[in-house]
Amino acid sequence: MYIKTVIIFSFLWAAVPSFAQYQSGVTLADKDKPVVADESDPSVKYANKITAEGLKKHLTILASPEFEGRETGQPGNVKAATYIAKQFDSYLLDQAPGISDFRQPVNFTFSSWEDTDMYVNGKRFRHLWDYLAFPIKNSDMPLMETKEVLFLGYGIDDPKYTDYKGKDKDFKGKVIVINKGEPMKADSTYWISGTKETSAWSNDLEKKLMVAKSKGVSLVLIIEDDIKKAIGENRNQLLGPSVQLGDHTKDVVAYPNHCYISTTIAKELFGTEEEKIIKERANILKKGKFKPVKLKSHYQVNLKKKVTTIKSQNVLGAIPGKAKPEEVVVVTAHYDHLGKKGDQIFHGADDNGSGTSTLLAMAEAFAEARAGGFRPDRTILFMLVTGEEKGLLGSEFYVNNPAYPLNMTVADVNVDMVGRQDDKYKDNPDYIYVIGSDRLSTDLHKINEAVNAKYCQLTLDYTYNAEEDPNKYYYRSDHYNFAEKGVPAIFYFNGVHADYHQPTDTADKINYEKMAKVGKLIFHTIWELANRPERIKVDVKAGM
Length: 544
Description:
Blueprint: E1 26-27, H1 42-47, H2 52-62, H3 75-90, E2 103-120, E3 123-125, E4 131-132, E5 141-146, E6 149-151, E7 157-158, E8 161-162, E9 175-179, H4 205-214, E10 219-223, H5 227-233, H6 235-239, E11 242-245, E12 257-261, H7 263-270, H8 274-287, E13 293-295, E14 299-319, E15 324-334, E16 339-341, E17 344-346, H9 349-371, E18 378-385, H10 393-400, E19 409-415, E20 431-435, H11 442-456, E21 459-461, H12 479-484, E22 489-493, H13 512-531
Parallel strand pairs: 6-9, 9-10, 10-12, 15-18, 15-19, 19-22, 20-21
Antiparallel strand pairs: 1-21, 2-3, 2-11, 2-14, 4-12, 5-14, 6-13, 7-8, 14-18, 16-17, 20-22
Helix pairs in contact: 2-9, 2-13, 9-13, 11-13
């Protein structure tokens, strides 16, 4: 599962309204109610093909040292894609439209800093200690040097308040220092809104950067009051390469170069002009007026980028429907993980070797059902996606380049971490967290509940489906890209554990019997989605 990085650029966040009406309770298993286990029901017969032994066979291979943690763009990831494609071929799955060798090419651009140097008045400051800059949001900054920096208040240019006093030429090519937020009056209301409510300028860095760009500013230095916290919240993104879909090696970055700096750097820049800055801040408070302050500081920066393109692939295999082949049920799991860090391998057995193995087992079971005369009415597309750990990028690529039209995609069924137990259920492995089932379609939610009651009797926990869930798991796996496009989606998840995103997430810790039970639930849900007379309805507005 993707760790949702807390990016301090507020404009990169989509505003998500907070509603609490989505299912957030628990459907307890009814152990007194017998489940349908008679193999005269073909869905039972073929669901029983999903076994602990078969799942273990796949998972021990995928999470082995040979696959080196399956990081996107690395040899282990390629090996995993090859393994999956061979399995699809052995099941006699069909190629999806426009796909050959079961592979949909997905290219990425990796951006990182090669050199990071910053000096103020001869004092050296360290990247990821005193300041931070995102390589994906900046161009090369080789050997930039100036003996004059402008303190520019909040970096706002609004009819009701501006920090850009003077002519545009006064700012062209300059390095500016700005505060986060926006100016207030002495009565604690804001100059721009006229109330105690902030305006868009407070949290929309994009607005400030675009103004700076329009003025010809070369570099924006943003004062971050708690730089250690900002670095900690963004460490995963900053330590590894930043990743984008596609080839961006020749792109021009949309915003002016910008760095977040500590208050220590800011004070060094202010130098003897700090009293002037204090005076200007007082003027803002009293009059809502600001005059740029020239800082006679010797500033140097050298941030050199390394940009490379990486080739990867989603792996797709299909069973065409017999009655309504144009309607498609998509089943997803990501096969990538974190790879190697030095000599340590992040095996990713649960995340997401478990989902990958479950999908393979289900694909084989449905293939056997087809061979046995039970071809589904609707097409089923089995898809293992790459780049999930880089930001749900493989599934993002698919929904923008679908093999089947999204308006004919009935649902996405997503499997991400289904082989372990969390602390809440340490004594009860017969459970699964269900996320998203009622977000767009009440039919989807009811179907999963009904097949569970009929065939499985697992405890279904919807805790993480609540809109107010602080973990925001609904937005952190591949189903979300489908949901954003209006496709109903359901996500199966076992919760996190001590080995999550650690080298210790190994195949020997997987509960394969639990995995098989969850796999059967998912199989039955897909069977119903693929064979019911009417496709499920989209009857819930996103965000409602």
